[in-house]
Structure formats: structure tokens, C-alpha cells
């Protein structure tokens, strides 16, 4: 069974969709299924550091022309249409779009398409996007539904959004398969690595951690406002790409914004944190919550989307517009707080449902359901 995978974000995106793709592909490869051949289709080679995170066993495939000779428009056309010819040439049994898109003409070519849809935030909350982008994203969403043989939703919340905003006729074609998380967050970090990372990023002794793009929807200002109600030696460390929204955060020496942090350093930053705050107003899943729990941190997140589904019943959830609630929940998550260690242990037990091999097995079952009999 030859499975083609959309690898654009695997080789280009350091977090988010890129992380999802690399983790899933590596989980599939670790199963050692001799009947499964993975071919990763990307418009160019992307970043060596990201491409190199894929373990041995998969084949990268690019446009027929040398990637360096192909312009941006040509790459976009290849990924959305031209790739179908290459998939047929390579005898691909099933094609998996990892980031909510499938190429046009896939169904007509007789190649079953599986697509992972992470969220429909552009339809639920268009105020966070340029209006032209929302129109483009919605058109791609509806086109992908027409092409897809099967849809993977990364949460029950996303499944409900697809049915409500895409159409009830697609309900029977949707499976909820949660994201898995990288095993690096469960590994013990050496004292020397922690010391090195702490010095490199000038980290404070005690901090609440947040990971994710620093943008309006992620609502980091809520944690910044809650910081004034916490002990003075508690800092906020936020790791993620900055947008203009970062300028709205207070200019406070207790707030540390870090960008471009490599994966190995990120695991150490998680391990040295005291609590994790995820104040986002809307998510399709919220993988940083799972990473934080895996690293041994208590989590405080916000109500209103699917974060309770990701974090489980032993995390704390607060109103996304109430800094006092956020401060109180964080206070009850700092070292020495009542039942903190018990909540961490129970949360770690809860996230076992997201472990990679089980997720990969569910995905392979879907591939087999649609792959033509050889």
C-alpha cells in the first residue's frame, strides 16, 4: 500500500501543522508495517532541520523540475493540481492531506483522498483573519469536502464544526482521531541541558509558561494581566512567533517573549516551568496542553472551544475574559499548592489516549479501508 502524504508543512513549519505532520509520519514509520510505503510530497526541500526530523523509512518526492527552478506560483499550482499526475505515476493507493487540503482532481483520478481538518476558526471567528483570506479558506474547505473519501477531525469540537458549517451529509465520512504528541516531552532532561537553556534564554527561576503564536486569538494578554495578582517572583515566559498583537502586552520585566526556539530547547523550557497557561479563545485541539502535561506541568486553560477535551478533567479552566479567575487558577497550580501533584499524575494518565502508536494505528485502518485491493 503506497500512501502519499502532503509534506509541504512537514518541511517548512516548525510548529503547529508541521509538528502534527512530522509526529504522525514518524509514528507511522515506527510501527514497522512492511505493507506500508510512505511517500512525502513537498513543493521543495524546505528546511534541512525540519526535513531531518523524519526518521528513516519514508521517501521525499518533489516536482519533476528541480525545486530551485520552480517559482512560488508554480509550486502552489503543483500542490493544488499538478501533483495528481505524479501520484498516478507513482502508483499511490491513498493520498493524505495533513493540513485541511486535497488537490483538485484527486477523486476524478481514482485516488482516494483522506484529509485531516484541524479547525474551522476562519469560519467560526472570521474577525481574526483578513476577509479575503476567509473567502479563500472557505472555498478550499468546501472543495476539499468534495474531493475527500474520508475526513479526520482532530477533536469532537472540530467534527461538530465540519458537520454544522460543511453539511450534515458528510457526517458518516468523519472520524475523530486525536493528535499525538512527540515523545521528547516525556523524556527526562539532564541538569546540564536545563542549565544551558536557562542561561541561553535568561530564564527566571520561577515562571508560568505559554507556547503558541502570540496573536489576538491566543489571548495572552489575559495571563499578562493575571501576573499582577501572582507572587512577584513569578514570571511569564511565552514561546512563539510574534505578531502585531505582541505590542499590546505590557512592557514588564516579568514578561519574556521568545521566538525561534528549537525543539530540544523547548522541551527543556517546558521541564523548568512551574505551570502552563493556555488562554486561547478558540482552538481545534490545543496540542501545547498535551505537551505541557507530558512534561509534568499543571495546566490552566480557557473555556469556549475544545480545550477541556484536550486537557481532561484534572486541568483548570477559566473564563477567557477574567484575569482574576486566571490568577486564582494559576495560584492553585504553583509548587506547593494543594493536590497539585495528584492533578499532574491524573492528567498524565488522561493523555495516554493521545500516544502515537495508537493514533497511527487508527490512521492506518482508514488507509486500508480505502486503498484499492492489490
Topology:
Elements (H helix, E strand, L loop, with lengths): L1 E5 L1 H5 L4 H14 L6 E5 L6 H4 L7 E3 L10 H18 L4 E4 L15 E5 L3 H4 L6 H17 L2 E4 L2 H11 L7 E3 L14 H10 L6 E5 L9 H7 L7 E5 L15 E4 L4 H10 L2 E4 L8 H8 L4 E4 L4 H5 L4 E3 L4 H9 L8 H11 L5 H15 L4
Parallel strand pairs: 1-2, 1-4, 2-3, 4-5, 5-6, 6-7, 8-9, 8-11, 9-10, 11-12, 12-13
Helix pairs in contact: 2-15, 8-10, 9-13
How would you describe what is shown here?
This protein is α/β, with parallel strands linked by helices and 374 residues long. The protein folds into 2 domains: 195 residues, Glycogen Phosphorylase B (Rossmann fold), CATH 3.40.50.2000; 170 residues, Glycogen Phosphorylase B (Rossmann fold), CATH 3.40.50.2000. The chain is built from 15 helices and 13 strands. A 7-stranded parallel sheet has the order 3-2-1-4-5-6-7, with helices on both faces. Strands 10-9-8-11-12-13 form a 6-stranded parallel sheet, sandwiched between helices. β12, α12 and β13 form a beta-alpha-beta unit. The radius of gyration is 21 Å and the shape is globular. The termini are close together.
